[in-house]
Structure formats: structure tokens, C-alpha cells
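Entry for the shared binder. Reason: the reviewer on the internal report wants the predicted structure included alongside the sequence.
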Amino acid sequence: MDKQAALHHLKEHHFTPLLESELDKLEAKFHRCQAGLISDFKQSFRDLCAYILSMQQQGLKEPIGYIHYSFLRTQMLEQSYLYMVEAYSAEWYEDDSDCKLTYDASWAYAPMSAMLENLEQQRKIYMGAINSADVERLILESAPFFHSFVDSLVRLAIAESVQTPEYQAIHKAERLLIRTGEYRDISENLYVWDQEPLRADEVFEQLMQSSEEEPYVYENLKSLSLPHLHQFQKDLRYNDFSYSDLRGSQFHTCILLGTRWQQANVEGGSFQGCLLSDTDFRYCHLKGANFSEASGRVDRENGLRTTGLCGIRFEHANLDEADFTNVHSFEHAYFEGASMQGTRVPRIYQQHWKLSDSQRESIVWTE
């Protein structure tokens, strides 16, 4: 067996099944230990902000425009799973005033160590065709699979983290972005803050002009007055509508993946046919909202958890008289503290959703 054939066989019969098994176990841990993981992240974020403020008080750091969480692939073979957390001014990489700490993500990456040991043993059956460097390369290729769990945790934790006194105290640039990705490589926004809120009329025009070719995504749309907004088949993923007035707004078959609606008012609105994976409706006013035909589809392409780890969050929302008729893939939806008086819910979710006795009695169960 030549090297390429041996590598293909190792990957198909040993590496891929092992990776899938470890990811399944990690996903179970992610849900089981989520509260503790969020608490640990928030504390590390508070430590970072206190460090930033200390530097600023010494005149060593300009107002912050970027906070970047980076995984370091090259250190993983040394079993170091620390994220580099760097704060930059609005100049980003041109800011040469170092302000960095680390975040310990070993809870997510520890399986890589066991995988390396396992595959080191398995490679020996190929009679020298595969060496240690080949195994290490396979392990490093798996890093994005584990990063997706860290990415999801930060998305869940960041809304509370930016409410902490330590974050509020730091001096910020006109726009502050919290991002994550590989070190000095591709990254994406997890949170966007603007010193001056965007103007509702300008946002309305941009939303109306957005298209499949030019989607309006990853934006800060907080605290806007846009009642009775109508959006049809738009890609609006990862936008933040928190605290906005969207009463009576209609979102029809839109991609709302990863959007935030915390404390927004969408009373009487509609999300009919929308993709709502990883959407955050915590503390949202959703009385009479229509969720019929909406989907919480979870993507597991080649094992990569690109969506679905966060679930659909309705904790402490007002869902009175909301309609969940014919929703799909809503197994991972969370309702702790939500008001659900007269909420229409398909009976199949009785066994999936963790509900209080009063919520179960308040819901109108449908076939």
C-alpha cells in the first residue's frame, strides 16, 4: 500500500470515526456543562477588560476598536489549547501597543490529545507508509471542528459579558468589534457595538436594498425604531436587533441564523418559514408572533458543527399567543422563565422541550 492509499484508509477507517465520536461526546458535554462554561468565559472577559482599563489609565492604550479571540493551531501539538485574546485600537493590526491575555479552551480541544495518541498506534499497522508528521497534520486539520464549540460558547456568553462593569468602564472607539478565528487569519464578528446608534431610516433603506448577492449581515441594529418592517427571503444572518421596536414586523422565509433579539419588541410579528438556528430571543416581547413553518435546522456537514450548538433561546421571553405550528427541528429550544399563555405548540415537542408545569398547562397543544 503506497502512502496516499494508506492515508486514505487511515482517514476513512480510523480518523473520521474517531473524530465523530469525540465530537458527539463534546457536544453532550457542551450542553451539560454550559452554565459553568459561560461563567468561566465571563470571568476571563472581565479580567481582560480590567487589564485593558489598567493600560488605558496608564496612557498605554488607545480606545478599543477590536477584541480578537484567536486559536493557535501550531501550539496544539504541544497540548496547549490557549486562545490568544488581543485588544486593539481602531487601527487593528497597526496598533503596536500589545494588550493580550489568554483564554483556556482546553475543555473543547482536549480530545485532540487522545486522538493523537490513538492514531499514533493505528499508523503502525501501515508498515511505515505513514509517519508521525502525517498523523499530526490530520490532527491539526481537525482544529476548526473544535473551534466551532468555542465560537458558539462566546456567542451565548457575550450579551451578558458586555453588561459587566469591567467592560462598561473601558474606553471604546467609535465602533468596537469582538471577533474570533484562527490567529492572523480569517475571522468573523461575534459582537458589534457603535458609539452612535445607526439611523433607523438609513438601516431601513439598506435592509430594503439588500439581496442574495449583497446580503445585510453581521450588523449592529440595536435600539432602532422599525415597526411594521417587511422582509421577504432576505439573508440577515448574525444581525443584532436587540432592544429595537419591531412591532408587527414580518420576516418571511428569511435567513435569521444566529440573530439576536434580546429585549426587542416584535409583538404581533411573523417569522413564518424563517431559518432560526442559533437565534437568541431571550427577554424578547413576542406576544402573538407567528413562527409557523420556521426551522431550527442543524448543519452537520462532514461532522462540522457550523450551526445548532447554541439552540434557539426563548428564556424569559413573552410568547403569549405565539404560534409554533409546523415548526421543524426545534428540539433544542429553551424556554426557562418564558410566558407561554395560549402559545400554540405541536404535541411532538412535549417530550423534547424542558418546560415547567405551569408552562405545560398554559400551552395549547396541537396535532
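Summary line for the report: The radius of gyration is 23 Å.
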